[in-house]
Design brief:
The complex is a heterodimer of chains A (125) and B (142). With 125 residues, chain A is of the alpha+beta class. Chain A has 2 domains: 13-76, no CATH class; 87-124, no CATH class. Helix content of chain A is 25%, strand content 18%. Chain A has helices spanning 87-97, 102-112, 116-124, and strands at 13-17, 24-28, 37-39, 45-47, 60-62, 70-72. The two termini of chain A are 34 Å apart. Chain B has 142 residues and is of the alpha+beta class. Chain B has 2 domains: 2-91, no CATH class; 102-139, no CATH class. Helix content of chain B is 30%, strand content 17%. Chain B is built from 4 helices and 6 strands. In chain B, the strands form 3 sheets. Chain B has a two-stranded antiparallel ribbon with strand order 1-2. A two-stranded antiparallel sheet of chain B has the order 3-4. In chain B, a hairpin with a 6-residue loop joins strand 1 and strand 2 (42-46). Classes of the chains: A alpha+beta (125), B alpha+beta (142). Chains A and B meet through strand 1, strand 2, helix 1, helix 2 and helix 3 of A and helix 1, strand 1, strand 2, helix 2 and helix 3 of B.
Chain lengths: 125, 142
C-alpha cells in the first residue's frame, strides 16, 4: 500500500492504490470508502469490486488504523484469502521454492540483456 | 545503446501493465495519479503532468520518481508526439535495466523454469489456505 499525502497547501490529498489491480483514486480529505475502495483488518487496500470474488457475505469489524471505520475481516479479504496473488508475492514464492537469490537473477538478467526491449523479445520467444 | 524497437509492444505494455492512471472524479477538474514503477510511490495532482509532481516519463511510457535518476545533468530528453518532452530510453532506469521491475523478474523466472504465472498462482492457492500460511512458509518457519 503506497500512499502519498499533501501536495496542495491548506488541503490534504490522498492517493489510494488498489493492491490487486493497481488502479488508483485521489481525493481531498477522503476516506478510502468515499472513493470506492475497501481495506481489510490487515491493512490491504483494494477496489470494492474485488469483493465480488468472495463467495460469502462480507463481514466488517471496527478498525483502529488511521483510516478508521469499518474494515473488511481477513476471512473476506481477497488478498488475505489468496483470491488474488500479486506478482511480488508469486516471485518471492518462486525464489524461495527454488532456493534462488533475487540478486543472482538480477545479475543474470543484466549480463544477458542490454535493455528491457531485449528482455521483452526474449519473453516473446 | 541501441534504440529500442517495437514501439507498439512498448506502448501496449505501458497501457496495460505499467501505466496506472485514473482521471477525473471531480467535475470541472481533472485529477491524475502517477505511480512510480520502481518504488511504487504514488503522486497526484489536479491537471498535473508527471513533472508537476516530481515524476518523469520515458519515451516508452515508464513512469518513475525523478530521484531515481542519479545524475540529472546527464538526462537525455526527446520529444514525444503525444506527450511532449520526455526522458529518452537511454536515460530511463527501467529501459536500461538499472532497476528491474518485479513483474519483469517474475516473467523471466517463469520462462526459465518453463512454467506460467497462472500455474504458479494456482499452486500457491492449492498449498496455502491464506496469506498468513504463505508468509510463514516464505519466512522458513515451517
Amino acid at each position: 500500500m503506497k500512499i502519498r499525502n499533501g501536495f496542495v497547501s491548506n488541503s490534504s490529498s490522498s492517493s489510494f492504490i488498489c493492491e490487486i489491480c493497481g488502479d488508483s483514486v485521489v481525493g481531498y480529505d477522503s476516506h478510502p470508502t468515499d472513493l470506492g475502495m475497501e481495506f481489510c483488518e490487515n491493512g490491504h487496500l483494494f477496489c470494492k469490486g474485488h469483493l465480488g470474488k468472495i463467495e460469502k457475505e462480507i463481514t466488517y469489524k471496527e478498525d483502529d488504523c488511521w483510516y478508521g471505520g469499518e474494515a473488511v475481516t481477513e476471512d473476506c479479504c481477497p488478498v488475505c484469502t489468496l483470491k488474488d496473488i500479486d506478482d511480488s508475492l508469486a516471485l518471492h514464492y518462486y525464489l524461495y521454492k527454488n532456493k534462488i537469490k533475487k540478486q543472482s537473477i538480477l545479475d543474470e538478467m543484466r549480463s544477458k540483456f542490454k535493455n528491457l526491449g531485449e528482455i521483452i523479445e526474449y519473453l516473446k520467444e | 545503446m541501441e534504440r529500442l524497437a517495437d514501439w507498439d509492444s512498448w506502448k501496449k505494455l505501458g497501457e496495460t501493465v505499467n501505466m496506472k492512471i485514473r482521471n477525473g472524479f471531480v467535475s470541472n477538474s481533472s485529477s491524475s495519479s502517477f505511480i512510480c514503477e520502481i518504488c511504487g510511490d504514488a503522486r497526484s495532482g489536479w491537471d498535473a503532468s508527471p513533472s508537476d509532481v516530481d515524476m518523469e516519463m520515458c519515451e516508452h511510457y515508464h513512469y518513475f520518481c525523478s530521484e531515481h535518476i542519479n545524475d540529472r545533468d546527464d538526462i537525455i530528453r526527446v520529444d514525444s508526439p503525444e506527450f511532449g518532452e520526455c526522458v529518452s530510453a537511454e536515460s530511463c532506469p527501467i529501459c536500461n535495466l538499472l532497476d528491474i521491475r518485479e513483474s519483469d523478474l517474475l516473467e523471466y523466472c517463469l520462462k526459465k523454469l518453463g512454467t506460467t504465472e497462472s500455474k504458479t498462482k494456482a499452486e500457491i492457492k492449492e498449498k496455502f489456505s491464506n496469506m498468513q500460511e504463505l508468509r510463514t512458509y516464505l519466512k522458513g518457519k515451517r
